[in-house]
Amino acid sequence: MLSWKKLMGVLLLGLALCLSVQARNNSRYVNLFMGTAGDHGQVSPAAQLPLGLASVCPDSRVPSHVGYDDAVPEISGISVTRVSGVGGNGGGGNLRIFPAPKDAVVSLVKGSETAVPGYYAARLDNGVKVRLTATSHCALEQYRFPRKAPSTFYVDFNSAIDPRRSQCAYTILDDQNIAGWVVSSTVCNAGAYKLYFHLHTNVPFTVADRDSLSAQLQFPTGTRKVEVRIGLSSLSEASAAAELDAIAGRSFRKHRAAAAKAWASVLNKVEVKGSTAEQRTLFYTGLYRVYLSPFHATFGGKYRGTDSIVREAGDWTFYSGWSLWDTYRAKFPLIALLDPDVTADFCRSLVSLYQTGKRNWATLQEPVPTVRTEHAQITLLDAWVKGIRDFDLAAAFPYMEAEADAGRPAGAKNGLTRNSPDQKMETVYDLWAMGQIARIIGNDEASARYLAESETLFARTWQEEFMTITPAFAQMKGNGLYQGTRWQYRWAVPVYADRMIAWVGKEQLADELSEFFRQHLFNQGNEPDIQTPFMFNLFGHPERTDALVHALLTDDTMIHRYGGNAEYPEPFVGRAFRNRPDGYAPEMDEDDGTLSAWYLFAQLGFYPVCLGTDRYELFTPLFDRAVLHLPGHDLRLVRRCAPASAQAISVDGVRLPGFTITHAQLTSAREIVWLP
């Protein structure tokens, strides 16, 4: 019989284990099917590791930008790559396995699907059961065939979500192994990437039929279960085979458990309390989607640059697969806060990208699926001012200068563009960031020159295009804008809010921003104006930010006039974030974690309005309590006031003078309290 002390020890150990399990179980709040139906997010329930290249999922017969569409049960097979949440023609969809003869019609049995971070399973209407998981560079696929049914695969080596640049070559090495390479379009067909692969089956196959692009594989009669593993690499077929060799000693079950553990480490970075079940699901689903890219693109300590040269990574991880036109605005600032070491590797990767052939959009020699890379200088600057210094900022600067020179009126299209008013406003921000970077690296002449150019371009563009409001401001793509309206781009450079105040007046700007929201001119489904709800702080009215952000998160009667590229025929009424397959507003691409990061910041009560500075604007959080597990210590966020009603904020017991906090204050604090 246990003594009292031993019994208490067992009980305490059990309690600790229960609490540990509970803390590790934030994955239960993630709904991977949210936003997977139609043009309501363009995300998928794929099995993937955090920042993993392999992303394994069914592709719908009529694919969405990400391949999978919850509203289209018929599938074309299981593919191993995709870019989450992006518009245009999607990237990925490679090496598609169809567990049936080529001409069969096969659909997912809706209601049979299961998806949790790192794992996907479903039953097909031909009786085949599918289970999927992944490592960073390998897809693991299990297929269980019904009794007395033929066990066959149609493998499309040339598959792609956007097939316009597709090429492939493959060699059947023996009756269990196939190796080769694929080339596919990047997102929007702007460029191309090349991946090498090695495919291994645990059951020998015969080749029933084949051509240069595909093969029909037949397994012995009576085969019930086949496991396929596909290794991926940007370097070579041998490198892809090495990726498979590295995981050969572990079962599917153990890899699935490892994937769950990897996601738990990410989802544990924040704990939230005092909200609805839906709000927790929206929060952790958003945190999951923030960590889907860029992709881990280091293979055996080496990586391939956009100049096709293979380099040693050394003691850091090279990442690729960028959609910076979107993600620089919210996603990378969030990761910089939660994961500074990973962000340092992102920054090293961007420096290497500058050195090996950066372009605004993808090149024809990308190592992985990708989108575009504008505003990399803002991402690098933002990391630097937040204390992330373990990368060579000076090494990137000459390439930034060359990019800026190429974008001048007589320059190439891949520079800092200055054609339409929106491009000018974005270039204003890039030039401002370059001026700040030049100052940091000690190049005072360049700093003065770029800051002067930025200020001049801003003054001319804002005063001519955006200062005097007219009815035409509400027109989508008016006056040559690529996306958005002049109302939306009016607020695009918040680092120059002081100039706007000098020209217009703080109170008038606050009233005009209120009018912007009163007329439902904010486009929550696109990025150019996502910082505007938090800009009332800059104009002296934090209470308006408070009320507006709370309404955007909770009000089912919110009116939305604009989709991603056009004004809706009829306004969309409701919240832009909802826990359902059509969980984002119509035409609202989630944009590779950008809008998820926006949502997380909005729930937590602070937002990086002026990117490239160390400031966050504060407002009342949605949650009663949250804990951020920052490197080295925990930060507690506590709301002691009613929703959207904070009158003051204290940091470790000391009241702030206003509603702004620096990064150093935020990351060194133990407790921030919103007070009535």
Helix content: 25-40%
The chain-level mean pLDDT equals 94
Count of DSSP strands = 30
Largest sheet: 8 strands, antiparallel
Rounded to the nearest angstrom, the distance between the terminal CA atoms is 54 Å
Within the largest sheet, what's the order of strands?
A: 5-6-7-8-15-12-11-10
> What is Rg?
25 Å
| Total helical elements | 17
Strand fraction equals 15-25%
Which word captures the global form?
A: globular
Category by helix and strand content: alpha+beta
- Uncertain segments: 1-23
How would you explain this protein's 3D organization?
- Helix 13 packs across helix 14 (506-518).
- A hairpin with a 2-residue loop joins strand 5 (114-116) and strand 6 (119-123).
- Mean pLDDT is 94; it is low at 1-23.
- The chain has 676 residues and is α+β, with helices and mostly antiparallel strands.
- The protein has 17 helices and 30 strands.
- The N and C termini lie far apart (54 Å).
- The longest helix has 23 residues, at 444-466.
- Helix content is 31%, strand content 22%.
- The protein has an eight-stranded antiparallel β-sheet.
